[in-house]
Design goal:
This protein is 33% helix and 22% strand. By secondary structure, it is an alpha/beta fold. The protein has two domains: 282 residues, Metallo-beta-lactamase, Chain A (4-Layer Sandwich); 183 residues, 3-Layer(aba) Sandwich (Rossmann fold), CATH 3.40.50.10890.
């Protein structure tokens, strides 16, 4: 078996793992995830790179979850590069993808059109954005999906079985367990963690533990860090919101439309329910987040019991939180005139695209406002520069001063921290023969790898290099 890491090696985005196995005299080649690189110019260039193999020769793709950094280049692979085979994912992932991929195509086109307008007016400096695919190409891609549920086993080729388990990261997120019986070799089990959720979190169940594996590919977004406790995180959030509201400012929270937005909403409602925050005025400005929130409510059975209780309380006390979902662009622009008292939740989570950019442009220059960053901000993204406390940023080709306060609240992460990742790995009853540590910045991955060696006493722990091929 050969595994090549085409992305998420030495960084958190662009998850793309290529696997080749020999089955019944034939080489079978598949991908686990096919994500977009995100954050800055280098990422944009990598998204345009050609593949080291012919896409039409791929047999299938296994998709762990809907986030764009795991799924976002599928329309290039399918509609543009000729991959016509099946893509396997859970049904909830497929539902979310319909929203996310269409929105991704829409955002890319909007970026290009805006840049062209600005360029014509002589107001654009820097590289012109390129759309990676069109809405039509997304529709073609969506016809290639095959869904299966958690715990359902499916034979993808003679001697190759796939089963998904719950990763507890976002709706539909899965750990992919792949059993392979290669010619002349013992049966092997490969486990791809996808993104692993935090234990004991709102909305999502704990990640499933897998008992045995020969090869494990594990994420390491927060491999070098421990999140603050949920209690400390809440205290921090309550403090920032209360201080900002008292000072007549707005709170702007950039958030992934899928997963994070629903969790933040849930937490804010729950804080009001428990009397820790008083009446709130919340605006969710992202058509995709609105759709995903409806879907979350619809797929209620995926929520844990405590979360259901909070939603029921909100249903019975609708006046407690003034919650508005913004659908059209005009309404979104009108929100720029609200100078205080609003909590604005908008996508994208790393602030690089979408309506959040407008909200930052109008809220960053005023000192009474607060920006609360809750998700991971990859190197090169606008969100990362805000976290790193830059004095000014360039938005829509124009300079904007950063006077609003910027707060990073790590405890709300959708990713397990170092202790959570080690706990998940402890679920394996015997040490796997090989562990690959991916999906982290170099420091995070190497710190997690070292902790696995020291705490779990597993010997063969590798931080793979991008584009290198490994035999297992
Ligand atoms: Zn994810």
């Amino acid at each position: 078996m050969e595994i090549q890491f085409l992305g998420a090696a030495g960084e958190v985005t662009g998850s793309k793992h290529s696997v080749e196995v020999m089955l019944a005299g034939k080489i079978r080649h598949f991908m686990v995830d096919y994500g977009m690189f995100q954050g800055g110019r280098e990422a944009a260039n990598k998204n345009l790179e050609s593949l080291p193999f012919a896409p039409k020769d791929l047999d299938f793709v296994v998709l762990t979850h809907a986030h764009i950094d795991h799924s976002g280049l599928l329309p290039r692979l399918c509609a543009q590069e000729g991959f016509a085979g099946p893509i396997y994912c859970t049904s909830a992932t497929f539902e979310l993808l319909k929203i996310l991929l269409r929105d991704s195509a829409h955002l890319q086109r909007a970026d290009v059109e805006r840049a062209e307008r600005k360029q014509k007016a002589g107001k654009w400096r820097g590289d012109m954005p390129i759309a990676l695919y069109s809405r039509e190409e997304v529709e073609t891609t969506l016809t290639q999906f095959e869904v299966l549920e958690y715990g359902e086993s499916i034979e993808l080729a003679p001697g190759l079985q796939l089963e998904f388990h719950n990763a507890g990261h976002i709706l539909g997120s899965a750990i992919a367990v792949i059993d392979v019986a290669e010619d002349g070799a013992q049966k092997k089990r490969c486990v791809f963690s996808g993104d692993i959720g935090m234990k004991g979190k709102v909305l999502m169940p704990d990640p499933d533990l897998i008992k045995n594996a020969d090869v494990v590919v594990v994420e390491s977004t927060y491999g070098d860090r421990l999140h603050r406790s949920l209690r400390d995180t809440e205290d921090e959030l309550v403090e920032v919101i209360n201080a900002t509201m008292a000072g007549h400012g707005n709170v702007v929270m950039p958030a992934f439309a899928v997963g994070r937005t629903q969790e933040i909403l849930f937490l804010l409602i729950d804080l009001v329910r428990r009397g820790r925050l008083s009446h709130l005025s919340i605006w969710v400005d992202s058509p995709m987040a609105t759709a995903a929130t409806h879907l979350t409510q619809h797929l209620f059975s995926h929520l844990d019991g405590e979360s259901q209780a909070t939603f029921e309380w909100y249903r019975d006390n609708p006046g407690s939180v003034d919650l508005r979902f913004i659908a059209d662009v005009e309404e979104s622009k009108a929100l720029n005139k609200v100078k205080g008292g609003a909590i604005i939740i908008s996508a994208s989570g790393m602030c690089d695209a979408g309506r959040i950019v407008h909200h930052l442009a109008s809220n960053l220059p005023r000192a009474q406002n607060a920006i609360i960053i809750t998700g991971f901000q990859s190197y090169g993204s606008l969100g990362r520069r805000l976290v790193d406390k830059v004095q000014k940023v360039r938005l829509f080709g124009e300079e904007v001063p950063v006077r609003a306060s910027v707060h990073t609240i790590g405890g709300l992460s959708a990713h397990a921290d170092q202790a959570g990742l080690l706990d998940w790995l402890k679920g394996f009853e015997r040490p796997p023969k090989t562990v690959f540590v991916v999906h982290g910045e170099p420091e995070s991955s190497s710190v997690l790898a070292q902790s696995i060696r020291e705490e779990l006493h597993w010997s063969n722990v590798i931080v793979p290099e991008r584009l290198h091929t490994y035999q297992c």
